[in-house]
Amino acid sequence: MKNKSLLRSSLIVLIIILIISFIKLPYYITQPGMASELEPIIKVENGDENEKGSFSLTTVRFGRANPFTYIWAKLQDYHYIHPLEDIKREDETDKEYFNRQLHMMEVSQESAITIAYQKANKKVEYTFHGIYVDGIIKEMPAGSILEVGDRIYKVDNKEFQTAEEFIEYVSQKKEGEEVTITFEREGKQDQATLPLTSFPNDPDKVGIGISLVTDRQLDVDPDIELKTEEIGGPSAGLMMSLEIYNQLTKGDLTKGYEIAGTGTISSSGEVGPIGGISQKIVAADRQGIDVFFAPNEKDSPTSNYKEAIETGENIQTKMEIIPIDTFDEAVEYLLNLEEKG
After folding, report:
1. One of 54, 56, 241, 280 is an active-site residue; which one?
2. Where on the phi/psi map is residue 269: left (φ > 0), alpha (ψ -120 to 50), or beta?
3. What pLDDT score was predicted for residue 13?
4. Domains of the chain listed by start with CATH number
5. Catalytic residue among 54, 108, 235, 278
6. How confident is the model at residue 240 (pLDDT cuts 50, 70, 90)?
7. pTM above the 0.85 mark?
8. Nearest to 56 by CA among 296, 323, 290
9. Average pLDDT in the 242-249 region?
10. Which top-level enzyme class is recorded in the Swiss-Prot or TrEMBL entry (predicted)?
11. Residues linked to residue 155 through DSSP beta bridges, in sequence order
12. Fewest CB within 10 angstroms: 114, 154, 168, 281, which?
């Protein structure tokens, strides 16, 4: 009887634990992720892949909090708790958030490829494919029709190649007028007629309630393949540009070092700040990275670099943490780096 009672009590406790683990709190938990080598996921046709070291992107792990992970995060260094609104836009679904992150990665890839090919004196051309829906205001007309990730090809049977052209066209109309949009979702085209209304936070501005970015395709020579379907966000831009450039040019910029970093990259080569820099420093240190590039933000006192240095000192890392403002600065540092002994 005693054994049966103990087994019954254990099962009850287990069931309670399972139930609690499925309770979603209005928070996300972020923590150090990992450093992932880029050479296996970036392939330039006939590119030089004989790297003695490596270029790696760094990641932050995140997930919806339950009572157990919330308490665990409270007890751990570099585990951060974020309210939902800090991670996702208001009324944004998980699917919309995921699509937005993937598109941000696509834009980051485009900029990384552009700057790397231009610096290597290789062909870069653009083909335009319409306008990408980056965000939606739920209470406006588009809220019940469009989704983040849709691509708009025509408005009132007019073809637009850039988001700026669309915005200029709509801004000339008045509240109450209608526009007919032709859009694509998951490979299928559809059409809808929507009225223009004023924006909740900007009554003098009218629209259908979407934010837009230009959707364009890069045409390059030599060809390039990037297998980044599972990576979201723009923070790998700098490191991708360095890996691509290294494959396009002779020699080995890694010089035998394990090199990681983070930062957005523009098509002109400017490096921008990201979130989670401390957690990425911890992740890189755990994987034995030698050199870490951190956005310098023109030596701002609150830059990613300053935070990275502070974190490095706290965890007593042996990594060299290098401030970077541009793609050219990163390349110059690597060219002047001595071969690893």
Report:
1. 280
2. left
3. 65
4. 31-62+107-122+224-335 (3.30.230.10), 125-217 (2.30.42.10)
5. 235
6. very high
7. no
8. 290
9. 95
10. hydrolase
11. 158, 181
12. 168
